[in-house]
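Thread amino acids onto this structure.
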């Protein structure tokens, strides 16, 4: 299934996408797409086939984040071999983990605010895993794929100077307001093979990232198993699985970091496309997940 949420911020309603420009309103089946959505697969499947539910055109609609009430976002650093090389970093012996606050999540086409004082805001297209079942201490006998509910596109926006030069953990450069556009689609695991998906990022129409998930150091299933050794993963939790080569940080000086007015478009095969306009920070601006 391909699920999404459309409507104004804070008033999104759930839909099941049935073609490029048409969806079924499933708000009468489930109130919203939250952590329990994977328990309602049969009901949603029946709703998609039902002629009685409203059909919706997807022309000129706003997509919100495809899932709400996210518990936590776990991010994986340096998980693509070419990306590690472009940043002169060693491939880690174990996955590098850091956290991103759920309130950084916005819709896939919402404006992204460049933080006050930023000179190094960067884009990062990533395959996001959405957890479907509680996973804790998974063993080699457990199939971690059984714990994945679905996949979507994430832009792990980063401020590199905050991240790397301002001391402490990476969190300073990862948790700025609006720094995690998510969606548009949440595609269930039965429709996606995460092992060889094409990821692309364009900035103002110029291709910056063009790679495959096959360059991942640790694949999605093994990431779920690994992370479950350190924290419980609950339905609705999100894992940003790492970014491929081509980020601004990896370019020679002067690095092409994002500036107000820049437009970033990100896509992953089978998961749709995002498009964000980067704008100056606005004091008092109301943002956050739908």
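Threaded sequence (290 positions):
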């Amino acid at each position: 299934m391909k699920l999404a949420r459309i409507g104004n911020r804070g008033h999104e309603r759930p839909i099941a996408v049935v073609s490029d420009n048409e969806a079924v309103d499933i708000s009468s089946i489930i109130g919203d797409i939250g952590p329990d959505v994977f328990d309602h697969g049969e009901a949603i499947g029946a709703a998609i086939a039902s002629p009685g539910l409203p059909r919706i055109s997807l022309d000129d609609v706003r997509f919100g984040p495809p899932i709400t009430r996210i518990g936590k976002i776990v991010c994986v650093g340096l998980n693509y071999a070419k990306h590690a090389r472009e940043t002169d970093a060693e491939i880690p012996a174990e996955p590098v983990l850091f956290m991103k606050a759920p309130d950084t999540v916005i819709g896939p086409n919402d404006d992204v605010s460049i933080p006050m004082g930023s000179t190094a805001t960067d884009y990062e297209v990533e395959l996001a895993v959405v957890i479907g079942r509680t996973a804790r201490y998974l063993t080699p006998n457990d199939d971690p794929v059984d714990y994945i509910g679905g996949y979507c596109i994430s832009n792990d926006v980063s401020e590199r100077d905050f991240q790397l030069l301002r001391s402490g953990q990476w969190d300073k450069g990862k948790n700025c307001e609006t720094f995690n556009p998510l969606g548009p689609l949440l595609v269930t695991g039965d429709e996606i093979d995460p092992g060889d998906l094409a990821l692309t990022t364009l900035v103002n129409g110029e291709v910056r990232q063009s790679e495959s998930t096959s360059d991942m150091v640790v694949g999605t299933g093994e990431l779920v198993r690994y992370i479950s050794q350190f924290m419980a993963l609950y339905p609705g939790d999100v894992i940003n699985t790492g970014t491929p080569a081509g980020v601004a940080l990896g370019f020679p000086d002067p690095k092409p970091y994002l500036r107000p007015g820049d437009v970033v478009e990100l896509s992953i095969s089978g998961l749709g496309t995002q498009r964000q306009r980067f704008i100056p920070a606005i004091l008092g601006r109301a943002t956050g997940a739908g």
